[in-house]
Amino acid sequence: MQALKQSPPSGELSFARSDNSTLVVRLAGDWHLRHGLPDTDLVLKQLDTAPKPVRLTFDAAGLRDWDSGLLTFLMGVSEICHKRNLPADWSPLPEGVRGLIQLAEAVPEKTGARHEAAHASFIEQVGQEAISYARGFDEFLRFFGEVTIAFAKLAVGKARFRRVDLMIVIQDCGASAFGIVTLVTFLVGVILAFEGAVQLQQFGASIFVADLVAIAMTRDMGAMMAAIIMAGRTGAAFAAQLGSMKVTQEIDALTTMGISPLEFLVLPRVMALFLMIPLLCVYADCMGVAGGALVSATMLHISLRTYLTESKNAVTLTMILGGVFKAAVYGIIIAVAGCLRGFQCGDSSSAVGDAATAAVVTGIVYVIVACGIFAFIFNIIGI
Q: How far apart, in whole angstroms, are the C-alpha atoms of residue 103 and residue 114?
C-alpha cells in the first residue's frame, strides 16, 4: 500500500491505494471550517495519477471532531465523483456525516444559488462599458433638464433657497480658490513659455513666445485649467456635501417638508460656480501671461514692457470673451456633475468618497469633451 501525506490547513488529509483501482481518502484529526479546508484539487490530482482509480472510498478511523467544513469538503468530492461517473463508498464515514450527505444529494440545488463567474469577451466588455457611459450621459442630461427647470422657476421668482447659502458657496468657489488657481496657472504659463522658447529660439523668433502664451491661455488653457481645478476642488466638495446629507437623510427631510432639494441645494451651487468660474478664468489668463513673462525675462531677456505689448497685440477681445464663455459652460457642467453624483450617493459613509471621486472624473471628462466641441465650433465660425 502506497501512501502520500499532504499538509492541509485544517484536518489531516492523506491518500492511499488499497489496490491499483481504489483510491482511499484518509480523514484524520479535527475538521473545522474556521481553520480552513483542504483543496479538493488534491483529490483531482490523485484521480489523475496513473494507474487511474475506478473507485473511491474513505478511511475515517482517525477522524475526531468535525463541523460543516468537513461536509463542504465531502460535497466537493461528491461533485467530482458525479462528473467522472466514479462510484464512491461513503460507508466508512460517521453515521451523521452520511445522513447529511444523503440529505444534500436528495434535495436539488436551487437554480442560481451558486455564483458563476462571468467571463465576458473583449467585445462584450467594450459594449457593456459603452452602454454604461451612455446611461451615465443620459442621467446627466435628465438632471441637467431638472436644473434648467429650477432656473426657470428662479427667473419667475418661484424658486426657494436661502441667499446666505448662495453667498457662502460663492466665497468657497471664488475667493477661497484664488491660491490654487494662482499657483497652477502661473506654472502652466511658465511651462508653455519654456517649451515655446526652446523651439522658437532656433529660428530667432523668441518674441513670439508672448503670442504663444497669450493666445493659448486666453483661448483655451485659462478656462480649461480653471475648470479642472474647480472639478477637483469644488465638484468633489459638492458631491461630498450632498452625499453626506443623503446618508444622514437630510435630503429626505427636505422633501418631507415640501422643499425641493433641487432648488434648495443644487440651485445655489450651480449659480455660484456659473458666476465665479469666468472671473477665475480671467485671473488664470493673467497668471499664465505672468508666468510666460517670467520665462521671457530670465531665459530670453525680453523686457516686461515688450512682452506685454506683444501679448496685447496678439490677443483680441473675441478670444478673451470666448474663453470666458467656455469657462461659464464648464462651471455649469462641473456643478451639475458634482450635485448629480451627490444625489446618486449610496447610504454608507464609504459611498460618499465614491461619489466625490465619480464627480471629479465625470466633471473632467465632460469638460474635455465640451472643449473639443468648442474647438470645432469656434473653428467653423472663425473665432
A: 18
**Whole-number Å distance between alpha carbons of 25 and 13:** 7
Alpha helices in 201-348, H assignment, sequence order: 208-216, 222-230, 236-247, 250-256, 261, 267-299, 304-314, 317-343
Q: DSSP state, 3?
A: E
Report cis status (omega within 30 of 0) of the bond before 261: no
**How far apart are alpha carbons 236 and 5 in whole angstroms?**
57
∠ Cα 3 8 12 (to 5°): 60
Question: What single-letter DSSP state applies at residue 50?
Answer: S
Q: Is the distance from CB of 270 to CB of 339 less than 8 angstroms?
A: yes
β-pairing, 12-19 vs 55-66, is unpaired
What gap in Å lies between CA 236 and CA 232, rounded to an integer?
6
Residue with cell 521671457: 296
- pTM for this model (two decimals): 0.68
pLDDT digits (tens, 9 = 90+) for 265-292: 999 999 999 999 999 999 999 999 999 9
Q: Are 339 and 324 in contact (CB under 8 A)?
A: no
